[in-house]
Every structure is written in C-alpha cells, then in structure tokens.
Amino acid sequence: LHSDIDSGDGNIKYILSGEGAGIIFVIDDKSGNIHATKTLDREERAQYTLTAQAVDRNTNRPLEPPSEFIVKVQDINDNPPEFLHENYHANVPERSNVGTSVIQVTASDADDPTYGNSAKLVYSILEGQPYFSVEAQTGIIRTALPNMDREAKEEYHVVIQAKDMGGHMGGLSGTTKVTITLTDVNDNPPKFPQSVYQMSVSEAAVPGEEVGRVKAKDPDIGENGLVAYSIIDGDGMDMFEITTDYETQEGVVKLKKTLDYETKKSYSLKVEAANVHIDPKFISNGPFKDTVTVKIAVEDADEPPVFLKPSYIFEVQENAASGTVVGKVHAKDPDAANSAIRYSIDRHTDLERYFVINAEDGNIKTIKALDREEMAWHNISVFAVEVHKQHQEAKVPVAIKVVDVNDNAPRFAAAYEAFVCENARSNQQFITISADDKDDSANGPRFIFSLPPEIIHNPNFTLRDNRDNTASVLVRREGFSRQKQDLYLLPIVISDGGVPPLSSTNTLTIRVCGCDGSGSLLSCNAEAYVLNAGLSTGALIAILACIVILLVIVVLFVTLKRQKKEPLIVFEEEDVRENIITYDDEGGGEEDTEAFDIATLQNPDGINGFMPRKDIKPEYQYLPRPGLRPAPNSVDVDDFINTRIQEADNDPTAPPYDSIQIYGYEGRGSVAGSLSSLESATTDSDLDYDYLQNWGPRFKKLADLYGSKDTFDDDS
Q1: Which of 81, 145, 444, 482 has a CB 3.0–4.6 Å from the CB of 162, allowing a cystine?
Q2: What is the pLDDT of residue 672?
Q3: Rounded to an integer, what distance in angstroms lies between the CA atom of residue 103 and that of residue 156?
C-alpha cells in the first residue's frame, strides 16, 4: 500500500486491520508492503476483507480515510478427488445383456471448479476388465461381457479411479472398490446324476411307508432351484406315489397300496423332475426337466393268513337245537408254502359261549339255544393261525343274526285298569286297549282281540276289535252300583299273526266309580261312599287337623324332655365334694390329722341308707352290711377307703359314690421333680436334705426320712 502524501521521509505509518490482520497478514508500517505469514488454503477460506489506513507516525492522526480491499486466494490443484464411499456393493443378474447398468459411483474434488481444470473429474476402471466398464463422465458401471454365468463365477471386484485436470498428466486421482455379485436366474434345468435307481420294499409294508428317494441336481439357488417330482409312466403308477421334500429337494417314493409278492415281484416307474418356476427369457435353454427310471423289487415276507371275505354275516333261527350249523369261514396262507390253517373263536366276543368252531374246516355251530328277544345279533371274532407259525394270525368279524320264530304270545301293552261310571249308558265305550309282542313284526301284528267262549255273552261288558291292533271295551247294561259290586275282572284273549299263531288271556280290572252328570269321576271307593252319608267332607278335614295338632304337641313335649339333662343320682343336699376348703397354714405331713375332719370325705347321705339312681330301677334293695362302715369321726384313712371300696364292689345297682384318682403323670416337659415320698424314698438322690433339721419340729419327720445316709445308718 502506498499513500500519495508519502514523501518517503518516514513520517507516515501504515496500519492494517480486518480478517486475518496481524495473524495471517502483516504490513510493513514504513513501506506499506503486506506479507502472508503462512500458507493459505482456498478450500479453507477463499478470500479476506482487510482495511488499511495511513496515519501520522508521531500523532497517529489519520492522514487519509481508511481504504477497504479484498484479498482473494487463487486456487491451485492441491486436492485429489474423493469418493463418497470407500467400498461399494452392487448386484446384477447373471446373463445380463452388455451395457446393463450395475451402479453409479460419484467422487468430489474440493478445488475450485470455476478456475482451471482442477475440479474436472474423469472416471476410469483399473480392475474388473473385461467384465465391466465405467462411463468416464458419469461414473456409471455397466456390464461389458454377455452371458456371465453365476454358476461359473458369482462375485467380481472392480476398482474405479476418478482423476482431476480432465484426466491429463499431472492431475490428482482417487480410487474406490466396487464388489459386484451376480444374482441367480433360472438358466439351468434339473439333472439326475444317474439314469436308473434300484429300490426294494417288503410286501408286508403298509401304505404310506417310504420306499426310497431320488434327487435331481439343479445348480440354481432359491426358488429358481426348486424341483417338483412326479410319476409319469410305469406299471407301478397305481401302487406307488412320489412326493417332494422341499427341505432336501428330494423326491420321496412311497407305497400307495398293499403289495403281494406272490402276485407281482417287481415294478418300474418313470419319474420326472421339473423346475417349479421357469423364466421365460431362458425358455430356449430348456426343457427345464429331466426323467429317470426307478425299479422297485418286492421282497417276500411271511404273511399271516387271509380270509376270503373281510367280514361274514350268517343267520340262524332262534331256539335252534344245539349243534346247528351257522356258517363257515375260510382263510388261506398267501405265502408260497400254503400252510394249513387252524380256526378259533375269540372268547372275549362270545362270553356266554353260544358258538363253537371246527378248528380245521371253519364251520361255526351253536352250543345252546338262542333267544332273539334276548339278543337279536351276535358279533363274534374268528382267529385264523398257521399250524407251524402260531404268531401269524388273522382276525375276521362274524355277525350272526338270530331269525325270529313265533314263541311269544301277545300281551297287554300296559297294566290297564279301567273305570266305569255307575250311571254309564248301554254300549258306552270306557277304555281302549292295545297289545305288544316281543317277537318280530312278522310274528306279531295283526292282533285279534276277543272274549273267552265261556263268557262270550257277558251280561256286563262287551268287546269290539277295532282291527288296528286295538280293541274297545263297552258297557252292555246300565245301572252299576258300588255298594253291590265295585270291582269286575274281564278276561280278554289276544292272538298274534304269527305262524302258527299264539294267544294269551289277559285280565282287565274294571272299577265302578261315582261320576257327575258330565261323566267325570268323583270317587271309586265304596267305604268313602258310605261315610259320605253320615259325615260331611268338612267334618272329616276338621278331625284330621285335630289329630295332626295333637301329634305335633306330643313330638315337641318329647323333644324338650330329651334336651333336659338330669344327674344320675338324687342328692338332698349339695355334694360335699364341690366345696372348696381353704387352709391358711401348711400341713404337718401325712401324720397331721388335726387340720381337717375326715368325716367331710364321707357321703352324708350314704350313712343313713342306700341312695338309688334315677335312670336304673334296682332289681332289689341293697342293704349295707353292718360292721363295715367306720365311725363318722374315725381318722383311720386306710380303713375308710377300704370300706368304701367294698361297698362299691358289692353294690349291683349304682356306681361307687367316690372314686380313687391316681395321678402318676407329672406333665410333659416339667422341670420340677417328683414330690412323692413313695418314689424318693426308694431312689438314690444326690440332693442334700440335711437343712430340714433346722426347720423345726414340724419337719423332723421329713428330715429323718430324707436325711443323709449317715443318719440312716445311725438309726439302724
């Protein structure tokens, strides 16, 4: 910087301020030259705005107004191109046409694109030729070869370069890696690795059992490699089937029907494997299927016998004689040996043992008579076993129908009891009867109703057959009276339509009843009719109500008496044993008899005589024997107790008034020792009772009993 007023004498001082002044830019205050203190980076800051001013060196007075100027950083090619990603991944279908777009890569250059060619980029491929190419200006990667096969090579690694300066010499460059994977298309048909498969299966195999597996190989993957199997030809199409196991991509050959080695020993199948999904673009590569021959050999197995029929149905008449042939079953050995067969009945299906079978020829016969009305069908099972191989057996159901014969006479369908009014009119119908027959319908209806020949001219009733398996009973005369006869028994003959027909005589009970004018029943009791003449219905109800009330009072009185508890023995005064006597002084031991009166322990009522029990009536009066009871004021406790025991033992009518209670149990977990003199006197004890000598004369006896051993020795 230079001012016009600067004469070069050094009186002018230049000052610089603004962006980067003093840090990046400095000024020579004498000459005004501006210098950069460090290297500038346009990519960091493209320009700086500064202000310069000339002032008097001595007074710092501005000599000119401040001047603003801009310092622009001129760009140079100092930044190489950089891609957005260090690595790229892309997919492209195999067998794509040449020029198919795969992916576009993009690089950027930090240099100034408006100045020179520093930011002008050109793309090129360094690795991946001749399979792929890249457009120089756009960075789009395209396929360069046709029919690239995924099955031959699936993954490719391509290196792309971006260079500035338009790709000319001296330009900077950057690279990136692109991993390109060929995706699968269905361009390969399935192929069987062999032309013939050999399999075998036992004739004893059950339908649905697996025979073997075949597999066609398809190098494609995913849904393009899915294969479906089918049988398209062969003499075993009806005997076998094939399914696809999509997990293993195998065809599973299974048995469809039961095999018979003796009938056919081998089968041949033609199996086809075809792709499930076919790409129309590659249909010319087809056909996308393959075929193979499967030969299956049937192995002989030791089979059980086989009945000629899956089930048998026979008929036999009921009441047939024992030994009657019902029918015949037949089984044979399907093996080439054709072993002899033995038959037997499963007794779990014939618990009553109605039938027997001939073990050699299979003839079934009856053992005892059959009753169709008891069981119309018999379902049994017959076993067939080989003579020399008992483990090989077969079983067949046999249903035996018991054919009905007319062996049951018809009877009333119900227990009929008819009622006829006293004022019934002549030819009035009062009941309709029907019948049933335990036999089959062929030996049952039509039923024929009639009166026995001896009463065909019954003066009271008549019978009319309605010809529909029912009959009506009618009144023949008028003027029935309950007082004369209130019950009639009418025999009726019923015949069935069987061959030969059977008949039975059934008795119909007919009661005479009182009815109102409309024919409604009022009463059928003759006694009630007589009573009705003397007592009204209201009087009868009143009598019954009084009886019920009296019964209730008696029941309540008995209940209250039972709830009241009375003692077994009657006392004139309160029992002395219920008195609690308190003594304020300690007793003097077993010899102290002055502290209480022994007479209080005696029964005051028992002295005067025997005291009876209320609940037991004595058979004879017990008289106490004289001389056994001690005087009331006796102090001999032993004699008193013995006397009471003898009275109790010899009293046959009442329990002892007093009882002896023995307390031999101190209580569980008691820390106190026994106070009994009986036990402690005979037990060695480590306790010292010499201190009892100091307690005075009242405890002298205890001191003598429980003193030291020396004391006992001295006394002895």
Answers
A1: 81
A2: 55
A3: 13
Q: Which of 271, 283, 152, 282 is nearest to 219 (CA)?
A: 152
| Residue 316: predicted pLDDT | 92
For residue 574, what pLDDT is reported? Answer: 47
Q: How far apart are CA 348 and CA 538, in angstroms?
A: 68
Mean pLDDT of 413-436: 88
Contact at 8 Å (CB) between 397 and 490?
no
* Beta bridge partner(s), residue 199: 296
| Residue 577: closest CA among 602, 597, 595 | 602
What is the arithmetic mean of pLDDT over 132-138?
Answer: 93
Task: Answer whether residue 314 shows pLDDT above 70.
Answer: yes
pLDDT over 90 for what percent of the chain?
35
Record the tokens describing residue 681, joined without a space.
């006197």
Contact 393, 383 (CB under 8 A): yes
Round to whole Å and give the CA distance between 50 and 35: 13
Nearest 5°: the CA angle 162, 167, 168 is 150
Q: What residue ranges do the domains of the chain occupy?
A: 12-72, 82-183, 196-299, 306-403, 411-523
pLDDT higher than 80, residue 585: no
What number of residues does the chain have?
716
Q: Could you tell me which CATH number the domain at 12-72 has?
A: 2.60.40.60
Q: How far apart are CA 143 and CA 157, in angstroms?
A: 13
Residue written as token pair 């149905």: 313
Mean pLDDT of the chain: 81
Long-range Cβ contact pairs of 487-491 (< 8 A, separation 24 or more) = 487/511, 487/512, 488/460, 488/461, 488/512, 490/451, 490/458, 490/461, 491/451, 491/452, 491/455
* Mean pLDDT of the region 302-323: 90
Check whether domain 82-183 has CATH 3.40.50.1000, yes or no? no
Backbone angles phi, psi at 403, to 5 degrees: -80, 135
Q: Is residue 384 within 8 Å of 343, Cβ to Cβ?
A: yes
Q: Provide φ and ψ at 650, rounded to 5°.
A: -100, 5
